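Handout, section B. The chain below has 484 residues.
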Amino acid sequence: MTTSVRGGQLARLLGQWHSLPGRHRSPDYAALAGAVRGLLSDGRLPLGVRLPAERELAEALSVSRTTVTAAYRSLRETGHLTSRRGAGSWTTLPNGHRVASSGLWTPGDDIDMIDMGVAASAAPVELVPAARAAADDLPRFLGSAGYHPTGLMELREAVAATYTARGVTTSAEQILITSGTQQALDLVLRLSVPAGAPVLVESPTYPNALAALSARRARISTHGLDAGTGWDGELLLAALRQTRPRLAYVIPEFQNPTGHLMPAALRERLVATAHATGTELVVDESFVDLPLDGDEMPPPVAVYDRHSRVVSIGGMSKAYWGGLRIGWVRASAPLVQRLAALRVGVDMASPVLEQLVAVHLLQDAAGIVAARRAQLAFRRNALIEALQEHLPEWRFAVPRGGVTLWAELDGPISSALSRAAEDVGVRLAPGPRFGLDGTLERFVRLPFTLAADDLTEAIRRIASVRHDLDRATRPAWRTPAVIA
């Protein structure tokens, strides 16, 4: 069934659509059509959504129906709207375009496109030897059906050993191998979050986590992170006490997208408060292997868990390779068995060959991860130098690890800048994609996983279109009418 958006809902999403930079000299219908395309481009208005009837939207926006009719016609002409008499109009993409990793629509032919929408690195050189060694190991498993819902025992043991080495004693029975970290999160949500259950997340946060929670129809509330300092401990714990969520999702190691590292004292208080409020903590450790400045890492959140309130998820996408779809859940052994039973209804098991590749990579983890850290530190520094040279008015906290830098722009232009950057061959993930309500327009996430030369060129191109945005005459804000 097609999802519909009502007139009042679309009006709230559009906001000051008539006052966007460069729009005030255009006819109202063109500004309205451009604003709807903007909502599509930054992902706040999904594809396949039925838009409100022309009369309903006109009433919600306090404009003439003629304006809405012309705007819809313009959207149909550009391929962003499909209409059928008696059935309504729903959002689409132009022919030959696709949804990019950033959520923006982009031509299918991506010549000279620098993609900064994906925060993941290319594969390490050790991957091919690991794959060959895994192929040599494969005959040992060919006599069985190949279904291992909890994962191969040797991989579970290897993952458990990494937790034990970090200070939280873990057995193989506490590990479930999944097809990536995203599936690990999805399985936990399927088990723990019924429709309408309250959930607490950070803001900003990982967009695909928000998508997974929305798919579960969770009732999401947020705790805002300060761009410069990260978590406000008192506010975070107060949010837990006041909302008493069924589940809280946090990224304490080099948070995506801000790059912040949660201090040990707050981790301990977070676990204690979660126990008091009956909240299950889902801790995403995707970036735990990637400190870049030699800092001593705080203990895992699970160290402070005495009541099985903490479920840790992680995987090999960030430190190793995103194409190797290996993730895991660390939890109590009974919970792992419940997740495995649920997982059978999703995909039965992870591929045996990929799990064997993961085993060999983890055997060489020290060298692989050290090289990855050095590579990322060099690229991070190149990105910072490019920002300081070309966009000195942007502000940011230097991330001490992870793969992303969260930049505060010099105005609420993130979506407009992301659209303009596409025209010069740079794909960005605008700030609103990392939140719930269309805010965060003053921010953009900049991963430093590409080659240093590509990062420098990307910032140079972004700076050129940022300066072009300034050439448009500033909009004249309307004075609110007083009604007594």
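Note. The radius of gyration is 24 Å. Compare this with the example in section A.
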